[in-house]
Design goal:
InterPro entries: PAP2/HPO_sf. The structure is a single chain. It contains 5 helices and no strands. It has about 90 residues and is mostly helical. The two termini are about 25 Å apart.
Length: about 90
């Protein structure tokens, strides 16, 4: 398992080395897509304006994904990268 942690830390360090204002904007945009506001805004929009059936399927997929993610985190209880190596920092 130590090699997996090390690989993850190496990936984070590589991404941090290529930091630029444009990349920061892209990464923050991707991160904001995981916020509750994005779901609360996009799911009803898809349901009402695009396709009801597709909206229901997407909503179900989002709920299932959130549940699986939470369950996996609780079962595995892995440390965050900044807890393993403070030099990678915390965004």
């Amino acid at each position: 398992m130590e090699s997996v942690y090390q690989w993850g830390l190496d990936v984070i360090r590589i991404i941090q080395k290529i930091e630029s204002p444009a990349l920061t904007v892209i990464m923050k945009t991707i991160t904001s897509l995981g916020a509750e506001f994005a779901y609360l805004a996009l799911l009803p929009l898809i349901f009402w304006c695009i396709d009801e059936k597709r909206g229901i399927r997407l909503g179900t997929a989002v709920l299932l994904s959130a549940w699986l993610n939470s369950t996996a985190k609780n079962i595995l209880q892995q440390p965050r990268p900044y807890q393993l190596d403070p030099s990678v920092g915390r965004a």
